[in-house]
Specification:
Strand order of the largest sheet: 11-16-15-14-12-13
Number of strands: 30
Helix content: 25-40%
CATH topology of the largest domain: TIM Barrel
Number of helices: 24
Bound molecules: 2-acetamido-2-deoxy-beta-D-glucopyranose
CATH superfamily of the largest domain: Glycoside hydrolase, family 3, N-terminal domain
Distance between the termini: 60 Å
Strand content: 15-25%
Radius of gyration: 28 Å
CATH class of the largest domain: Alpha Beta
Number of domains: 3
Structural class: alpha/beta
Largest sheet: 6 strands, mixed
CATH architecture of the largest domain: Alpha-Beta Barrel
Length: about 800
């Protein structure tokens, strides 16, 4: 300890530059505010800033653009004292005035538009709002990669513009890429659904939209690749219980098998890091198999940095470290004050484990003592700080970024962005039922409309959580009003619908209207962060309200459901008085317009459900806290997600209708692949339910292969109906028959394609055998299995076998 203190003192005296009190005053008042203080700060190494501060920029290596970012970050960190270093380790980094290093607020959010949830971003008279896109679950339903990326680009343009005006940061802790394992999860709205591959593809596209600077995507040195803004994939890992019947995320220990970890929970993060080249990952609140994720060297250092080679920093979820002490009581009892102090100090060991930045104050408050007590090497802090500063350098925080300099007020809430938000909602909306072509409504025949239900005049409900202040709202009521004379009735006192007294006026409206549109569903009072659902039904009197209105309606009845998770609406599916059903997720600031465009046929819906809609009884069969995805026969648990659940559903994953029909014709499919093993590659046994089916060489370890085996095919999609429209082709692979405990099918690719009525388009697909035909075994080996795999298009519209022959 004495030696540590000695080092500390030496370090301090070497580093103590003398700066005049005048310069310090200037620093405190202006130049240390940094980006998100509303000041006119442009970039750290702006020479005029330094001259204002009485410093000579040319003497600071970290401002020398001839040096590499690594060297510059090292120079900066080497100049700091230990006390100064620890002040930079929290989300509100304090800066180092004597070095001209300003404060920086790391916490901003941009899940589906620039949000003011984090302290790094705010709205005021100058920038009163930003474009609020649909929530992620609806945007995912579009199954359109270029849409996902384009939204990321629009959001980062607005973020960068707001940064230029001192209203926002450069580091955004979005997207949320946790797989929706259970339909009760309150945060489904934030996510891209239940399929790990789809979630991963969404993640890498959105991240690239936020981060990539055109023309530099494939830079050879990924550690110095420029960033438009920095994105963060969260919450790592196996995080999907918020608060279910008293079990909350701050205490929950997710018991997860290595198989499910590799196959489901880590997969989107791996794709986010490797395919998206994201510059940050956030660890979660929960424990995994007993260890808080932010304190797990295997999950952080070994996997994210080691196996996946992250170019960026790892941050904790906010106050995760406090959660470890007070929630998980990690590493012992904290009742004793003394023990608590020691423990708290011990948390700086997390730096050693790979967590670079603490959203909170634990690192800043306790790390200095940790070093003095010999609990963490100072070099680990240096390494974390370097990870942080390299990201800021890539963002232009030190040197400025001429590419984005001209972005300003005109780029936030621009016409194009508002249009893109509307387009995203239109593309995502899913047509679930359409008897006798009720939709689209024929506007000429419809003069009077009844627009009823708790969401009929939805505004804030349409933008969900992690929203900002939107540019404007177009509610359903507002949008439908431009199509005829509208009678509006709420029918319910809110989504809770605890009172049936408002049903009658809604029935009266429906009785006299040429068409009735019912807006029902959920909102953040039912499904939200820190709030999981207890059932899959519509709340309160909503079901009764819908049935009663439908029964007396004069014209056709259209039911529009706003929700993130699936709702058991079997009653509506079966009710002949309800002619059509649309799912509109939470459709963003222009949601009403998008729904009206679909209802009146200005847009032909093509969205597909990114989640299985289970029947209500499903949740009575298994607790939300059982993490396993495969069925557990001994406990009577059904499987989870379309990959492992084979029971009946209200609507399956991938479901969605159109106003037209499409026919598929398969072109030039390759039907077999031969793999000859070398001496160092071995056949691996795998378990078969029935050994009769087991081939002589059942499988080979994917890590042992070069994985250059590809197969491909073309699909001609013909629009055989009368309306132009977009079709989502979803491609699944099914493993050979007989393999024990594997998925029934898995998505390996998808493509949304627009086809004019009477015309056809051919889409070509190429797949890598290792990525598309592999299985993860119970022991977490990733294996390529020989035998007859099946490739299936959509809901088994077309399927064909592909024979994989592995020979020693
Ligand atoms: C920023 O610059 C503008 C225009 O040059 C000026 O009006 C404003 O007062 C400056 N703000 C601060 C915080 O220095
Ligand atoms: C970067 O590489 C990807 C994948 O190889 C390619 O599709 C893309 O066009 C490349 N971008 C540039 C700017 O070279
Ligand atoms: C951290 O330090 C600040 C400033 O000294 C203090 O206000 C705060 O209470 C401390 N928080 C904790 C959790 O120790
Ligand atoms: C619809 O909602 C908006 C925004 O909350 C509100 O201003 C308006 O009065 C509502 N319209 C009706 C008819 O209740
Ligand atoms: C239902 O609403 C009516 C009208 O607003 C009110 O008179 C009644 O007390 C409410 N009933 C309940 C159970 O809240
Ligand atoms: C659909 O149309 C057919 C033929 O007009 C009719 O017999 C049938 O009852 C209709 N179905 C519903 C549910 O309205
Ligand atoms: C579906 O699950 C049941 C119960 O676990 C099982 O008996 C049946 O074989 C499964 N069917 C398929 C097609 O996997
Ligand atoms: C579409 O495909 C189905 C099934 O293959 C076939 O019965 C039908 O005739 C086709 N329709 C058109 C218009 O090609
Ligand atoms: C996919 O999204 C892009 C970007 O919004 C859009 O231009 C395109 O039309 C969409 N594709 C289809 C087939 O809907």
């Amino acid at each position: 300890m004495a030696i540590n203190i000695f080092n500390f003192l030496v370090c301090f005296s070497i580093a103590s530059f003398v700066i005049s009190s005048n310069a310090r005053r200037v620093l405190d008042s202006k130049n240390v505010d940094g980006n998100n203080g509303g000041s006119n700060f442009t970039h750290v190494c702006d020479p005029s800033r330094f001259s204002d501060l009485g410093l000579d920029v040319s003497t600071f290596g970290f401002c020398d653009s001839k040096l590499s970012y690594d060297d510059r970050a090292k120079d900066l960190v080497d100049r700091m004292t230990l006390a100064e270093k620890v002040r930079q380790l929290g989300n509100s980094a304090k800066g180092v005035p004597r070095l001209g290093l300003p404060k920086y607020e790391w916490w901003s959010e941009a899940l589906h538009g620039v949000s003011n949830v984090g302290p790094g971003t705010y709205f005021d008279d100058l920038i009163p709002g930003a474009t609020s896109f649909p929530t992620v679950i609806l945007t995912t339903a579009a199954f359109n990669e270029s849409l996902w990326k384009q939204i990321g680009q629009a959001v980062s343009t607005e973020a960068r513009a707001m940064y230029n005006l001192g209203r926002a940061g450069l580091t955004y802790w979005s997207p949320n890429v946790n797989v929706v394992r259970d339909p009760r999860w309150g945060r489904a709205t934030e996510t891209p659904g239940e399929d790990p591959y789809v979630v991963g593809v969404y993640a890498s596209n959105y991240v690239r939209g936020l981060q990539d600077v055109e023309g530099t995507e494939n830079a050879t040195d990924l550690n110095s690749r420029p960033l438009k803004v920095s994105s963060c994939c969260k919450h790592y890992a196996a995080y999907d219980v918020d608060n279910w019947l008293g079990v909350d995320r701050y205490h929950f220990d997710a018991r997860v098998t290595e198989q499910d970890m590799a196959e489901t929970f880590l997969k989107p993060f791996e794709m986010c890091v490797k395919d998206g080249d994201v510059s940050s990952v956030m660890c979660s609140y929960n424990r995994v198999n007993g260890i808080p994720t932010c304190a797990d060297p295997k999950l952080l250092k070994e996997t994210i940095r080691g196996d996946w080679d992250l170019h960026g920093y790892i941050v904790s979820d906010c106050d995760s470290l406090e959660v470890m002490v007070n929630g998980h009581k990690w590493l012992g009892d904290t009742k004793e004050d003394a023990a608590a102090q020691a423990l708290k100090a011990g948390y700086s060991m997390l730096i050693t484990l790979g967590m670079d930045l603490d959203c909170g104050v634990y690192y800043t408050n306790f790390t200095q003592n940790s070093v003095r007590q010999g609990k963490v090497k100072e070099v680990e802090i240096d390494r974390s700080l370097k990870n942080l500063y390299v990201v800021l350098m890539r963002l232009g925080f030190f040197d400025g970024n001429p590419t984005f300099k001209s972005l300003g007020k005109k780029d936030v809430c621009s016409k194009q962005h508002i249009e893109l938000a509307t387009e995203a909602a239109r593309e995502g909306i899913v047509l679930l039922k359409n008897v006798n072509e009720t939709l689209p409504l024929k506007s000429k025949k419809i003069k009077k409309l009844a627009v009823v239900g708790p969401h009929a005049n939805a505004t804030a409900a349409m933008i969900g959580n992690y929203a900002g202040i939107p540019c404007q709202f177009t509610s359903p009521l507002g949008a439908f009003s431009s199509y005829g004379e509208v009678k509006y009735e709420m029918g319910c006192d809110g989504v809770a619908c605890a009172n049936d007294s408002l049903i009658f006026p809604a029935m009266k409206a429906a009785k006299h209207a040429d068409a009735t549109i019912i807006f029902a569903g959920l909102d953040l009072s039912v499904e939200a962060e820190s709030l999981d659902r207890v059932d899959l039904l519509l709340p309160g009197y909503q079901t009764q309200f819908i049935n009663q209105v439908a029964q007396v309606s004069k014209g056709p009845v259209i039911l529009v459901i706003m929700s993130a998770g699936g709702v058991d609406i079997s009653f509506a599916k079966q009710n002949d008085n309800i002619n059509a059903i649309l799912w509109a997720g939470y459709p963003g600031e222009e949601g009403g317009r998008a729904i009206a465009d679909v209802a009146f046929g200005h847009y032909n819906p093509g969205g597909r459900l990114p989640l299985t809609w289970y029947e209500a009884g499903y949740v009575d069969m298994l607790p939300m806290t059982s993490m396993k995805l495969r069925p557990i026969d001994s406990l009577g648990y059904p499987g989870r997600t379309y990959k492992f659940y084979n029971g009946s559903t209200v609507y399956p994953f991938g479901y969605g209708l159109s106003y037209t029909q499409f026919n598929y014709t398969l072109r030039s499919a390759r039907k077999s692949l031969d793999i000859k093993l070398r001496k160092s590659q071995h056949c691996r046994d795998i378990e078969y339910k029935d050994n009769e089916y087991k081939p002589p060489c059942p499988s080979v370890l994917i890590d042992d292969l070069e994985c250059n085996h590809e197969f491909g095919f073309g699909i001609e999609v013909k629009n055989v109906g009368k309306k132009d429209g977009s079709e989502v082709i979803i491609i699944y692979s099914k493993p050979p028959i007989g393999i024990a405990a594997t998925h029934t099918k898995q998505v390996i690719g998808f493509k949304r394609v627009f086809v004019k009525a009477g015309k056809s388009e051919t889409v070509n697909f190429v797949f890598n055998a290792c990525k598309s035909l592999g299985v993860v075994n119970y022991n977490a080996y990733n294996l390529l299995t020989s035998g007859r795999h099946t490739i299936m298009l959509g809901d088994d519209v077309v399927s064909f076998p592909i024979q994989l022959n592995i020979k020693e």
